[in-house]
Amino acid sequence: MRVIAFMTWALLGVAGQAPESAVNRSFLSLSEKQARQTINGMRVNGQVGGSWDLRVTSTDRSYNYKLRATWLTPAAVEAAARLLQLTKGLGEDQALALVKEVRAVPAYFLLVELDPREGSGVIPKDWIARFGPRGAENRQVVGQVVPEEGAWRKLVGAFPRDYSYDIFLLKFPAQVEGGRLLFEPADTEAELVVRIYNKSGRVRWQTPADTRK
For the whole model, what pTM was predicted? Predict the structure, then answer.
């Protein structure tokens, strides 16, 4: 089984887009089905590298990589906390506290899963991910992997897990250089671009209203 890797605070939605006072208890009434539907609605699949790329037997890289990403929007964070309450025994007050703690961070978070095909089964440490509005590369920012501690460690336990994938939680700054917001009201589509060696892949989402200022 591959090692589950988490990189440093700094990559799957938005935390910190609303103050604690905006977090209400309504998510506590979600059914398990509703919570899972909310999470799955922000989960997309893609691929890093082309399907017809040259196959390799090298021990240092794969010919392409399966890609799956979940955008942790405020609604997805609440749904995950509700699932932890329903399936893992998390208390109601603990679920509320978890949502407040996660959403207090002024950043966007995505859960990214990668599965190498043939060749090496190792994800290199220097892979990068960029996130931001589609068609606005000057406002796409590089993510940093969150370490394996804190509220996120608990939150990630609510998400579906396929152990053939390595899993990474990434954090993207909510502002670009100069203080401009990463997402603005006119941005209706978001894009994540993952690059490994000389191969790249991208996935996209419609931008939920609760992630735009």
Answer: 0.83
Question: With contact defined as beta carbons under 8 Å apart, do 96 and 23 qualify?
Answer: yes
Least Cα distance to 93 among 34, 25, 144, 146 occurs for 25
Alpha-carbon distance of 171 to 17, in angstroms, equals: 13
- The full set of domain ranges for the chain reads 14-211
**Gap between the Cα atoms of 204 and 160, Å rounded:** 20
C-alpha dihedral, 51 to 196 to 111 to 1, nearest 10°: 80
Give how far Cα 138 sits from Cα of 57, 66, 141, 184, Å.
37, 27, 8, 13
CA–centroid distance for 120 within its chain: 24
* pLDDT digit string, tens, across residues 29-85: 999 999 999 999 999 999 998 765 555 555 556 778 999 999 999 999 999 999 999
Host H or E run for residue 211: none
Q: What is the pLDDT of residue 17?
A: 47
**Distance, CA of 212 to CA of 154 (rounded, Å):** 26
